[in-house]
Amino acid sequence: MTAVPASTDAVPVRADWRDTLREASDLALLGFAVALAALPVLTLAPALATASTALHDRSVTGAWPEARTSLRRFGRALPAGLAVSAVVLAAVALLAADLVALATGRVPGGGPALVLTAVVVAAVLGYAGLVTVAVGRTGGRGWRAAAARVARACPERPGVWAAASGVCALAVLLGVLVTPVAVPILGGYALAALHALDARRPVPAPEPS
């Protein structure tokens, strides 16, 4: 009898509900780890940079980094991250004050000005989210270079920028509506969504034959 050669085609592995549940749990734990590391407030940027780097490792290697590796990255990200946190928190405070002033009528402009300010806030949040992703791709450091790189990329990829802004705006809205204990979970999911968005690259058009 002639042996039938085995097929060399790889059979794709289909993820089941346990893989999905495990991934959801990992992202929730990541969000809680960020919230815990960001408790001193000024450590928010280093915490986000470390989490973003862990997500990047997960997407590249298929495994999360060890706890010691993440702690070491967090320590390296602290010096520059403290200054970044201060700048970001100051900007957030100013934008939030503008929104509150417009919403309560203390500043003239009414509905149109409120909507315009909300769009600007969402765009800034989307930009900040993409910068966090870019920092994660460089080991959790290099905020200035990442900010410049994303500033050049946003006009070239307006769809990604708009989607990132929508993700961040939705996360903030849900964070206001849900119970406070669920807010870190939203943070982990939002950061993962930003990584997924940024990973999408435009497919080049085929050259004419």
Describe this protein's structure.
This protein is mostly helical. It has one domain (23-198). It contains seven helices and no strands. Helix 2 (44-61) packs across helix 3, helix 2 (44-61) packs across helix 4 and helix 4 (110-136) crosses helix 5. The chain starts with 16 loop residues before the first helix and ends in an 11-residue tail after the last helix. 29% of the residues are buried.
Mind sketching the topology for me?
Layout: H1 17-37, H2 44-61, H3 67-103, H4 110-136, H5 143-156, H6 158-177, H7 183-198
Helix pairs in contact: 1-2, 1-7, 2-3, 2-4, 2-7, 3-4, 4-5, 4-6, 6-7
DSSP strand (E) fraction? Answer: under 5%
Order of helices and strands: HHHHHHH
Number of helices: 7
Distance between the termini: 46 Å
Global Rg: 21 Å
Strand element count? 0
The major sheet is characterized as: none
Give the uncertain stretches in residue-range form: 203-209
**Total count of domains:** 1
Shape, please? globular
Quickly describe the structure.
The chain is mainly alpha-helical. It is 73% helix and 0% strand. The protein has one domain.
Key phrases:
209 residues, mainly alpha, 7 helices, globular, disordered C terminus
